[in-house]
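Supplementary Note 3. Input sequence used for the single-chain structure prediction.
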Amino acid sequence: MSAPLFVRGNYSDLFSSSQLPVLEALFRWELSQYDSKREMLFNVRKTDRDIYQTSELADLPMFSSIPEGTDYTYSTVRQGASKTIVPVKYGLGFTISEEAVDDGKFDHIADMVKKLAKSARETQEIQAMNIFNNAFGSQTTADGLSLCNTAHTLPSGGTFRNRASSDVDLSETALQSAMTDFETQFVGDTGIIYSIKPKVLLVAPANKRYAQELVGSDKKPDSSDNNLNALKSDGLVVVSSPHITDTDAWFLLAEKSQTGLDIISRKGVMTKAAGPDSGFDNDSIKYKSSYREKIDTIHAYGVWGTSGG
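The predicted structure, written as discrete structure tokens, is reproduced below.
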């Protein structure tokens, strides 16, 4: 999409309602330029209500042998993870003075619109990454425990782990152990082992290049041995975000549809502008943007993390 033209000759009367579409076009163009990580990692679920409620079912037991001529055993399904999520409104605005238009400050006005769009996207990105920043504390799943925990509870009373038993820095050995946890620790209420495969290695920028070496090298990393690098065959994609605040923390994530990482969207990013009548006393117009959503975690499956050693 090419940048919209915002030139004085074309838009001599910014205060008229006919000029509002160019502000919107500029805003949307800037939004499209943002390299967002959150859409890669989170499911987006839309709602038209003031709350979003989700309720999952617990697993069924394993099949049992049925002797000839005997009845089937019928199991009662129990409730699994459930959570009520309330979208939150975010917003910001600015005013444009009549003098700014009269004095030809079109570049400044355009820059303000673009910066508002950047602020919207950056706020959304920060809120998404805060899920991981708070994964060892305040960010909880339906069982009331932190997203990454060593003892997530199941309705049956059992537990499973999606955090290292002892927090450890990223290394070849630690990553191998985390991959094993992915294959063995994600168990259901009746002991079923979930076949969830990790797809993403999420790190802070300080670990980005080292993480790429771990998963992309042909030979075994951190070793003088000439063995093949088994981690490369797992096809992990390294994702780095400057909004991961703990440089030692790192995470393994499954494909987003297999996780409980959700963006509950009530209203997407939208803009509104008010004409000169609303700013009669100060000869200005107002421009604002807002959205309503809540980023949350329903269950802990498909997410594994450690805060580092």
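The longest strand covers residues 261-274. Helices lie at 20-32, 38-41, 98-102, 106-133, 172-184, 205-216.
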